[in-house]
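seq:
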Amino acid sequence: MQRWSASRGQVEPLAALVAVMAVCTGITMYAGVAVEFTDQKEDRSVADPTLDRVSTDLLTDGSIDPSELSDKSYLAPRDHKLAITVETPQRKWDCGKSAPSTAESASKPVSVQVDRGVIETGTLTVEVWNA
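struct:
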């Protein structure tokens, strides 16, 4: 039995490599265009990650001391402004400028140390907007 035949078609190795490279280039170009059209997340939420950063920075031994609420603008995302509010049923503490109506906000329940040895349930709220 012959392993080769003059009548069977064969491809040069260089031509086969060029064909494979052309197919791969086409697939890569298609994938790049497809991602560009499907991945349009320009308006990502920045409030939730900012809330996590602020709460991590403010929480000490599981509670927030409002007296430590000072300028926390360094916790804001780049090119954004930040307002922080800590609120209990009786009192409210603010840090930062008042937020415009277009600001994104996020909040979560926290323990607030209102006095030495006195801890109440409260809410930590952050508002983030473009600078």
